[in-house]
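We both want to read discrete structure tokens more fluently, so let's practise on a single case. Would you supply a protein for us yourself, any chain you care to pick? Would you write everything just below, so we can both look at the same thing?
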Amino acid sequence: MTIQIKKGKALDSLTLTPLIDVVFLLLIFFLVATQFAQDDEQLPIQLPTASNALPMTLEPEELVISVGEDGTYVAQGKRLAIRDIENVVRQAVADNPQRQTVIIRGDRRVPFQHVVALLDLMHQLKVPSYRIAAEDPEPAAATRP
């Protein structure tokens, strides 16, 4: 007594190529997305709050400089002194003189002089656009009297 199993035509026409393409696209998407997320977390800082703060979006022209609680500067993933920050910003402005944007992310506990030194440097190097990053205050804190 033998049992014969007949193959259906549906299995013959099933191809896995489109499924593999989708998996590769998802893999590339998540690799790129995690790279952008790492730029924000290179130096753990607590941003000050501002009621009119806009969400920070990282565009290709933007250079993010973080100032840590102890006054350390981080740009392009490296801890740098202020003179090295000057070289990085000077090169960025030379590469993109019309649209270069610098975002300064200062910890709320950092002495203000470190942020002012960066602002003075941006003005001195004639950076077309520079901003200071801030977070929205907690909604509950904004409604308290």
User: Anything to note?
Assistant: Residues 17-40 form the longest helix (24 residues). The mean pLDDT is 80.
